[in-house]
C-alpha cells in the first residue's frame, strides 16, 4: 500500500534518468535483434513453403503452437539449455514473432495475381527471380504488417523476460514488486510499465514510416 | 494506426475455421494427440529420475492437481466475467452514433494491448494487495479490451445494405440487432473470447508473482531452487493447458457459429 505522489515520481525519474535510459536502450536492442532474426528466418521459411500446401500448414500450425504457449512457460523451458539472460530471451521472442511473420509472408506471396507472375515468366524470368523481384516487393507491405504485430507482441513479452535476468524495462517492474511496501515500489513498477507502453506506441508509429519508405515506389498509394 | 496491428493480433490467435460438414478432420485431433504425447514423454522422463526431497514435495499428484485447479479456476472465472461484462458493453457502445465514444474506446483498447500483463498485475498488487482477487482483477482488466474491441468491430463490420434490407422487411432496431447484426458478429466476438482465454492462461501463470497460486508456482519454485524437473513440469503443464484450452475454444467457435455464416 503506497500512496501516489506525482512530484516524487518526477524526482525519481530525474534521479535515475541514466539508469532508465539504459534500460530503454536494452529493451529496444533485444526486441530489434529478435525481430531481425525472426524476419530473416520467418521470411525465409515463408518463401520456402508458400506454394507447398502440406509444409505450409505444418509450419503455420507449429508457429501457432509456439504463440499459444504462455511466455513464462516458454522462458522456463529454455532455461535448462540456454541459462539465464539474453539468450533465452532472444530465442523466446523469435519464437513468438514467427507466426505473424511467416503467416503474413505466405499470405502476401500468395496474393500476387497469377497474371502478374505469368507476365514475369513470359519476360524470361525464372521462378526464383519472379519470387525475389516480383512477389517479394508486392508482398512487402503485408510482411511488414506481420513484423509490426510481432514487434507489439515482443515488446510486451520482453518485460516478463526480466524475471529470467533478461534485459530491459521489465527489471524495473520486478524491482517494484520486490520492494513492495517501500517508498519507491510504485515508482519502479510505474516507470517500467509506462516505459513499455510508450515504447510500443512509438515503435508502432515508426512502422508506419518504415512501411512507407521501404515499399516499392510503384506500389505506394 | 495501432488499430491495424492489433486487429491482426486478434486474428493471429484464431486459426482458419474448418469447413462445415467436415467437422472431424484429421487436423482436429493434432492438438490432443500432441498434448498426450508430450505429457507421456514428461512422465517417462520424470519416472526415470531420482527425485530428492524438495522435488518430491512438489512433483506429486496432489500438489499438481491443486495448482492446476487454481490455474484453471483463475482462467475460467476471469474469462466468464469478461464475457458477461465486455460483450453487453460492446453492444451498448455500438448503439451510440457518437464517433468520439468509439474512438476513445478503441484508442484505450489499443493502449491496453500495448501494456505488458506483468506490469498490470504488479502495479495492481502494489497499489492494492497481493493475492487471488488482485490476480483475478488483473486478468479481467487485461482480457476485457480484446473482447470489447472485437464485439464493437464485429457489429460494425455488418454490411450497411444488410441492415437496410432488414429494416426494409419491417424489423425494429432491436430485431435487427438480435436477428441480423449479432448473429453476423458472433464469429468475430468468439474469436475475441478465444484470444482472451489464451491470454488468461498466460497471465494466470504470472499470477504466482503476487501469491495467487497456479502452475506458475512450480516454474518459479523450480527456478529459485534450481530444480529443473519442477520447472519443466510446471512449464510443460502450462503449455499443455494453453493448447488444450485453445483447442476447446476452437471447437466451441465452430459449434456456436450460426449456420450460414
TrEMBL record, chain B:
UniProt xrefs under Gene3D superfamilies: MetI-like (1.10.3720.10)
One GO cellular component term noted in the UniProt record for this chain: plasma membrane
Membrane topology reported for the UniProt record: Multi-pass membrane protein
Short name of any one Pfam family annotated for the protein: BPD_transp_1
Residues passing through the membrane, by range: 29-51, 71-92, 104-128, 134-155, 176-209, 229-249
Major place of residence: membrane
Keyword set, alphabetical order: Membrane, Transmembrane, Transmembrane helix, Transport
One Gene Ontology biological process: transmembrane transport
Subcellular location(s) per record: Cell membrane; Membrane
Domain spans labelled ABC transmembrane type-1: 68-249
Family statement drawn from the similarity comment of this UniProt entry: Belongs to the binding-protein-dependent transport system permease family.
Record's protein name: ABC transporter permease
Protein species of origin: Lacisediminihabitans profunda
Amino acid at each position: 500500500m503506497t500512496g501516489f505522489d506525482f512530484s516524487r515520481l518526477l524526482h525519481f525519474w530525474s534521479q535515475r534518468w541514466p539508469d532508465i535510459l539504459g534500460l530503454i536502450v536494452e529493451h529496444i536492442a533485444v526486441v530489434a535483434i529478435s525481430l531481425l532474426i525472426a524476419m530473416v528466418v520467418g521470411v525465409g521459411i515463408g518463401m520456402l513453403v508458400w506454394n507447398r500446401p502440406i509444409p505450409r500448414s505444418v509450419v503455420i500450425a507449429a508457429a501457432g503452437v509456439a504463440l499459444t504457449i504462455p511466455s513464462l512457460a516458454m522462458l522456463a523451458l529454455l532455461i535448462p539449455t540456454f541459462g539465464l539472460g539474453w539468450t533465452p530471451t532472444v530465442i523466446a521472442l523469435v519464437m513468438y514473432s514467427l507466426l505473424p511473420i511467416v503467416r503474413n509472408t505466405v499470405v502476401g506471396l500468395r496474393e500476387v495475381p497469377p497474371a502478374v507472375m505469368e507476365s514475369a515468366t513470359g519476360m524470361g524470368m525464372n521462378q526464383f527471380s519472379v519470387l525475389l523481384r516480383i512477389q517479394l516487393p508486392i508482398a512487402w507491405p503485408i510482411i511488414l504488417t506481420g513484423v509490426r504485430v510481432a514487434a507489439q507482441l515482443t515488446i510486451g513479452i520482453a518485460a516478463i523476460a526480466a524475471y529470467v535476468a533478461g534485459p530491459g524495462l521489465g527489471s524495473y517492474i520486478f524491482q517494484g514488486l520486490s520492494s513492495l511496501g517501500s517508498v519507491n515500489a510504485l515508482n519502479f513498477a510505474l516507470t517500467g510499465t509506462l516505459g513499455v507502453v510508450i515504447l510500443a506506441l512509438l515503435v508502432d508509429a515508426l512502422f508506419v514510416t518504415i512501411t512507407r519508405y521501404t515499399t516499392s515506389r510503384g506500389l505506394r498509394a | 494506426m495501432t488499430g491495424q496491428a492489433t486487429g491482426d493480433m486478434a486474428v493471429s490467435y484464431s486459426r482458419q475455421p474448418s469447413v462445415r460438414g467436415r467437422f472431424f478432420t484429421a487436423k482436429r485431433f493434432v492438438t490432443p494427440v500432441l498434448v498426450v504425447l508430450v505429457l507421456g514423454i514428461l512422465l517417462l522422463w520424470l519416472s526415470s529420475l531420482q527425485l530428492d526431497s524438495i522435488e518430491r514435495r512438489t512433483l506429486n499428484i496432489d500438489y499438481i492437481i491443486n495448482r492446476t485447479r487454481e490455474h484453471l479456476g483463475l482462467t475460467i472465472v476471469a474469462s466468464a466475467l469478461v464475457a458477461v461484462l465486455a460483450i453487453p458493453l460492446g453492444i451498448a457502445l455500438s448503439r451510440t452514433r457518437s464517433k468520439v465514444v468509439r474512438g476513445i474506446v478503441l484508442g484505450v483498447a489499443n493502449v491496453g494491448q500495448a501494456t505488458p500483463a506483468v506490469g498490470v498485475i504488479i502495479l495492481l498488487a502494489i497499489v492494492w494487495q497481493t493475492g487471488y482477487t488482485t490476480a483475478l482483477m488483473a486478468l479481467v482488466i487485461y482480457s476485457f479490451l480484446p473482447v470489447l474491441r472485437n464485439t464493437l468491430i464485429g457489429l460494425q463490420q455488418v454490411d450497411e445494405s444488410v441492415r437496410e434490407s432488414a429494416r426494409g422487411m419491417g424489423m425494429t432496431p432491436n430485431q435487427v440487432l438480435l436477428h441480423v447484426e449479432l448473429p453476423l458478429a458472433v464469429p468475430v466476438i468468439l474469436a475475441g473470447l478465444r484470444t482472451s482465454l489464451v491470454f488468461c492462461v498466460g497471465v494466470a501463470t504470472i499470477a504466482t508473482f503476487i501469491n495467487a497460486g497456479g502452475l506458475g508456482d512450480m516454474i518459479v519454485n523450480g527456478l529459485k531452487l534450481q530444480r529443473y524437473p519442477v520447472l519443466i513440469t510446471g512449464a510443460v503443464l502450462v503449455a499443455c493447458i494453453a493448447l488444450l484450452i485453445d483447442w476447446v475454444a476452437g471447437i466451441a467457435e465452430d459449434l456456436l457459429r450460426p449456420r450460414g455464416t
